[in-house]
Amino acid sequence: MLETDVLVAGAGPAGLLLAAELALAGVRTTIVERHPERPPYCRGFNLNSRALDLLARRGLADGLVAEGHRVPHAPVTGLPGPLLLDGAATDHPFSLGIPQTRVEEVLEARAQELGAEILRGHELLSFTQDDSGVTTSLHNGLTVRARYLAGCDGGRSTVRKQAGIGFPGVAARWFALLADVECELPYGPSAGPDGRTVFVIPRPGYVRIVVREDEPPADKDTPVTLELVQAQVDAVLGRHVPLRAPRWLSRFGDAARLASSYRSGRVLLAGDAAHIHPPAGAIGVNVALDDAFNLGWKLAATVRGTAPAGLLDTYHAERHAAGARILANTRAQVAVEEAGDEPWADLLRRVAAHPAGNRALAEIITGLDARYETGEHPWLGRLAPDVPLTVSGRPTHLAALLHAGRPVLVDLAGAFGGWSGEVEVVAASSGLDIGGVLLRPDGHVAWVTEGTDDTGLAEAVRRWVGDAPVPASA
Ligand SMILES: Cc1cc2nc3c(=O)[nH]c(=O)nc-3n(C[C@H](O)[C@H](O)[C@H](O)COP(=O)(O)OP(=O)(O)OC[C@H]3O[C@@H](n4cnc5c(N)ncnc54)[C@H](O)[C@@H]3O)c2cc1C
Hints:
The protein is an alpha+beta fold. Helix content is 29%, strand content 26%. It has three domains: 2-169 and 257-366, FAD/NAD(P)-binding domain, CATH 3.50.50.60; 175-253, 2-Layer Sandwich (Alpha-Beta Plaits); 388-464, Glutaredoxin (3-Layer(aba) Sandwich), CATH 3.40.30.120. Helix 1 packs parallel to helix 7 (284-304) and helix 7 runs antiparallel to helix 8 (313-338). The chain is globular. Bound molecules: flavin-adenine dinucleotide (FAD). Flavin-adenine dinucleotide binds next to helix 1, strand 2 and helix 7. Flavin-adenine dinucleotide (FAD) binds at residues 9-15, 32-35, 43-46, 100, 123-124, 152-154, 158, 178, 252, 271-273, 279, 282-286, 288. GO terms for molecular function: FAD binding; oxidoreductase activity, acting on paired donors, with incorporation or reduction of molecular oxygen, NAD(P)H as one donor, and incorporation of one atom of oxygen. Residues 3-329 form the FAD-binding domain.
């Protein structure tokens, strides 16, 4: 029997980032991935501003940004113009064109460097949980005993089903065929005689064709063939346009479902295992990373025994609510696309055409509006901006203080140096009207003051970090 602290099922973006976060905190972590190697096709091709902001809190964004292609707006479906990110609440006011497979490679290398074990060609079949852990059976007869199991195993999650976690939502009303091929169609939509379209998306060395099926298939799992896509493309366009050199053929629909709970005892869900939604706004990878980043430090603290009571449950509280918003946002984009000249859709289009409305929609659709608690100070509950700082006489920036994945109390007033314990206190200076800020390991603000008043700091430390740290004078 293999023993580990956390068993992660699935080496997609969620599983890989979660494993890296756990390993960073010194937690023994094993990933089991059913595929012997990463599939040759690539699903997603973008990281949004929110995901880049989060990855920057571990020093992972700059390398990806250097490799990718910047686009100054957020992907959106159904609105006529782009959602511009200029002036949005982000340190990365652009979307990054980069293959999902490349992001996975970077995360996998990091997880392994930090000590996580990745077992490819290992499929999780079933598990049982008891008071002290989870015993998991794999397809090859291997048994893994772990203190926690994280289901990052995609939309058809075995972990979610075996845990008995409901997946309520709406079934797909339509399906579209996807084909990564070579063909002579121009990029963008090509309309046929009756107005139906074939959409062509440029990809490196090939194109991605997307065309809706006329009727939902009798069995959505029937393999898609080149002949099927070819026939549908020709039928929609009313002429024959040859599709060549197929790399990947698939089908997707507009189903939207959200796990009824992101936690069941010692079992947690993240990424597509917890939510599926229409493919609007190119958001799936980004939400998967957001979930993993939120869960990682909380689960690590729980495994290490330093977590305050209830910390792990805040994962469901924060990310289930975020998941519900993602479902609403993506369904709304599809609804606008299908709404024609409905008055409400016209209103939304005019909101999007207004500069302030455009920016607000960009922030909402990319998840930049994430705020886990509200309060008077605008920073509270939000991801703290990556402001320039001076620490020990040297220039640095706020995100760099989080690279170690620990909670940090940034003391900008020289007033909080006596705090100790799990919280690292960093004396810094900046041009900001901030006296001190307590950052969770994911960079969200747990407490902030503009002066030297530490009211609420002890409570915030108890709530997010644990009981141990106290001011030296206490
Ligand atoms: C055509 C298409 C285009 C997309 N484009 C974009 C885009 O541009 N931007 C974007 O953000 N998102 C996009 N997405 C969505 C994105 O690909 C997913 O949301 C994202 O991969 C979810 O990550 P995940 O880690 O939760 O799950 P996955 O990436 O699905 O990873 C789950 C992993 O678990 C493994 N697994 C499953 N069951 C088991 C088991 N029982 N045991 C062990 N391993 C198991 C799987 O093999 C897989 O590797 C697209 C999706 C599709 C289909």
